């Protein structure tokens, strides 16, 4: 099983001080910076795009884990590649017809391809993207409906995580939505190793303690297995 990666969601940070917020949370022990890119169409909210990624890249060498909640992810590949994105996670719901081309394009721009699925999407829909040479490197299991922060964790989504971990032992499996000290054990025990957390980290009085707690939970579950 791959190692723990804690990826605080920058959406919960102070956007007026993005560079310093990124530096602060990395100093607190974060592995990645999770970037929520929403187009106002696939999800109701509108957040950031390539210009913000490009601006942030000038201030950090961190892995920028970009989650594309957009209707046309192919349109974002070239601009995000130029901007300095590290990972590019697209939704299977909008890429059922062109995922092979999408993965190839993402890799050609030097980014790591990953696929996400909404709570209502069966986990079996991402299996074809995990077999063969042209495959994604990570699966993001949404534990809330995408598009809004601060939602309640959906424990029933852990069945998807367990299915993925059993079938693909070395896969990076990311969970996003409602993750924090009270829910991390459920995610870690199911087999998740990449943990996205927004308000529970950026809203904490001691973010480093929250990050450490989540990492320790994943490490402990890995050792137990």
Describe the protein in words.
This protein has 225 residues and is of the alpha/beta class. It has one domain: TIM Barrel (Alpha-Beta Barrel). It has helices at residues 18-27, 50-57, 74-83, 99-108, 158-167, 184-190, 199-202, 207-224, and strands spanning 5-8, 32-38, 63-69, 87-91, 112-117, 138-142, 172-176, 194-197. It has an eight-stranded parallel sheet with strand order 1-8-7-6-5-4-3-2. Helix 2 (50-57) packs parallel to helix 3 and helix 6 (184-190) packs parallel to helix 8 (207-224). The relative contact order is 0.17. The mean pLDDT is 96.
Number of domains: 1
Rg over CA atoms: 16 Å
Rounded mean pLDDT score: 96
Strand content range = 15-25%
Strand order in space, largest sheet? 1-8-7-6-5-4-3-2
Residue share in helices? 25-40%
CATH class: Alpha Beta
Order of helices and strands: EHEHEHEHEEHEHEHH
Distance between the termini: 9 Å
CATH superfamily placement: Aldolase class I
CATH third-tier fold name: TIM Barrel
Give the low-confidence spans.
none
The appropriate CATH architecture is: Alpha-Beta Barrel
Discrete helix count: 8
Q: What kind of sheet is the major sheet?
A: 8 strands, parallel
Helices and strands: which structural class?
A: alpha/beta
Mass-distribution shape: globular
How many beta-strand elements?
8
């Amino acid at each position: 099983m791959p190692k723990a990666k804690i990826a605080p969601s920058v959406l919960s940070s102070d956007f007026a001080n993005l560079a310093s917020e990124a530096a602060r949370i990395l100093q607190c022990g974060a592995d990645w910076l999770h970037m929520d890119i929403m187009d106002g169409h696939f999800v109701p909210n509108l957040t950031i795009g390539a210009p913000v990624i490009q601006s942030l890249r000038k201030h950090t060498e961190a892995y920028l884990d970009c989650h594309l909640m957009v209707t046309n992810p192919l349109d974002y590949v070239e601009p995000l590649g130029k901007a300095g994105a590290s990972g590019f996670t697209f939704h299977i719901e909008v890429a059922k017809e062109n995922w092979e081309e999408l993965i190839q394009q993402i890799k050609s721009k030097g980014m790591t391809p990953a696929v996400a699925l909404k709570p209502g999407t069966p986990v079996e829909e991402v299996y074809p993207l995990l077999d063969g040479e042209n495959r994604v490197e990570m699966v993001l299991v949404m534990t809330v409906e995408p598009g809004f922060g601060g939602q309640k964790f959906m424990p029933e989504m852990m069945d998807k995580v367990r299915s993925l971990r059993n079938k693909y032992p070395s896969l990076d499996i990311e969970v996003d939505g409602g993750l924090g000290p009270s829910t991390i054990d459920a995610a870690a025990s199911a087999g998740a190793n990449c943990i996205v957390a927004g308000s529970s980290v950026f809203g904490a009085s001691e973010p480093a303690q929250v990050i450490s707690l989540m990492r320790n939970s994943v490490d402990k579950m890995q050792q137990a297995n």
